[in-house]
Design brief:
The structure is a single chain. This protein has one domain: Glutaredoxin. 51% of the residues lie in helices and 6% in strands. It has seven helices and three strands. The protein is globular, with a radius of gyration of 15 Å. The chain starts with 10 loop residues before the first strand and ends with a strand.
Amino acid sequence: MPPTGGSSTASFFFDLGSPEAYLLAEQSMHVPDWIPVRLEPHAFMCAAEVDAYKEDVERRAAALGLMALRWPEPFPADTEFALLAATYARAIGRATAFALAAFRQAFAAGRNLEERDSVLIAAAACEMHPAAVLKGAELQSTRRALDEATERARAEGIRDEPALV
């Protein structure tokens, strides 16, 4: 774990498109500060590498006692809207509930978080109104907060996510 720059609160930095973040999320519900960030996604060289990665994550999920993973199509996916919704959820104190619901939609149900409906299902699961999520994700302040969280992660030495600091 990288140093936290003197922060005394534990933080969980995540991207909703990351199955590794999903695995860590299921073990990190006790962490008080969940922070969506936009870091470099895992770069796959070929289909065989994707398959090997999926098998590794599936083994790790089974070892943790999680449900069998169902992979969203496409994988990896563009999670920009989902991250903006997660950033809005963080602003209203619902980051953990929303992120868990979104991760479960993606990797337990196999739903594509590129689709707004999948994100809104996750929001509804933690009692966030769909219209509020759509509006909140479109706010410039939400985009700015996501950018600032990403910069904070980089400033704390985080280059890959998920990260627990």
